[in-house]
D-malate dehydrogenase (decarboxylating)
Amino acid sequence: MKTYRIAVIPGDGIGPEVINEGVKVLNKIAELDSSFEFDFTYFPWGCEFYTKHGKMMDDDGIDQLKDFAAIYLGAVGFPGVPDHISLWDLLLVIRKSFDQYVNLRPVQLLHGAHSALANVKNDEIDMLFIRENTEGEYAGAGDWLFKGQDNEVVLQNAVFSRKGTERIIRYAFEVAKREGKTLTSISKANALNYSMVFWDEVFEEVSLDYPEVKTASYLVDAAAMLMITDPKRFEIIVTSNLFGDILTDVGAAIAGGIGLAAGANINPERRYPSMFEPVHGSAPDIAGKGLSNPLATIWSASQMLDFFGYKEYGKAIASGIEELLSTKEFLTPDMGGTATTSEVGEKMVEILTSQIKRKVLG
Ligand SMILES: NC(=O)c1ccc[n+]([C@@H]2O[C@H](COP(=O)([O-])OP(=O)(O)OC[C@H]3O[C@@H](n4cnc5c(N)ncnc54)[C@H](O)[C@@H]3O)[C@@H](O)[C@H]2O)c1
C-alpha cells in the first residue's frame, strides 16, 4: 500500500475547523480505494504559536516540512499579530522556500452554487488562474527610510526575473495546449513601464513555441471588468502575483463565494512538497462557532488528489460538491443554509462514499 505523508498546518481562526473536514474526506477516499493511505502529521504553527514563542513556525520549520509529499494548510492570521508577520513568516516562507511558483486557482461555477452575477449559466464561468507565486509584487524587496520623520520614504519593489516570468508563462501555455483551451495573459504595461512591458514581451516570445494555443492579452483593469461582464471569454489565465491575488477574489464572488474558492501552490518539478489550501483567510469573525464553510478546503483536497495522479477522485470531489450544493440542505450560513461545518463535511463523506461505491460496483 502506498503511503502519502502529509504535513497539516491547520493555522488560525477557522483553519482547524475546515481542515478537519478536508482530512475526513481524504481519509474516506483512501479507505474506499484501499491501495493508498494518508499519514498526517500536525504542526501547531500560526498566531497562537507566535504569541507563545515569538515566531510563526519553528526555526527549522522548512527542514521539518521538506520530505513530506504535500502540505495541507487551513489559514493563518489573527487579531493581535500583524498580518504582514503572519503572512510573511509562515505562508510566504513556505511558498518561496519550496519554489511553489505556480498558484492554481480554479474559478468554476459549479451546479447549485450561487453566482454574484445575475442570469449567468454554469458553463460561462469555467476558468483556471495560473498565478505567479514566488516573486513579482510579493518579492518582499524594498526599504523604509527615515521612519517617522518628515522625509519618510517607503519603497516596495516588484521583482520580475526572466527565469521566474518565463517559467510561469510556459507552464500556462503547457496547460492550455494540453487542455485545448485559450490562454489569456493579464498585465498592465501602459502604467508599469518596466515590469509589465517585460511580462508582455516574454508572453509574446513564449507564444511562438505554441502556435496551436489561441491567446489574448488584457490590462488588469479591463480584465476585472470583463470577468464580470463577459466571464466566458476566459479559460486559462496567466498573471502576476498581485493581480492574480486580487482577480481570484473577483473570481470567488462570481463563482459561488469565498467559501468555495480553492488553491494549490505547486512546485512542478516535485523537488519540494506542494501546498494545498483554501483561498480564504482565518475569518476571525466566525471562528470557533462551527459556521465556516469547509468546501473550499475540501476542493483543495481534490487538487491534492489530482496532483498525486488520482484524477478520478479529484473529479468525484467536484461532482460531490455539486450534489451537496444542489440538495440545498447541507449548506453553511454563508451560502444561505443552517448546517454546521462538520455537518457539511459528514455529508460530503456520505456523498463520496456512495458515488465511489457506485462506480466500483459498476
Ligand atoms: N491564505 C491565508 O491564510 C489567508 C488569506 C487571506 C487572509 N488571511 C488572513 O485572515 C485574516 C482575516 O482576513 P480577512 O477577513 O480579510 O479575510 P477572510 O477570508 O478571513 O474573511 C473575509 C470574509 O469572508 C468570510 N469567510 C471567509 N472564509 C469563510 C468560510 N470558509 N466560510 C464562511 N465564511 C467565510 C469571513 O467570515 C469574512 O466575513 C487576516 O489575518 C488575514 O491576513 C489569510
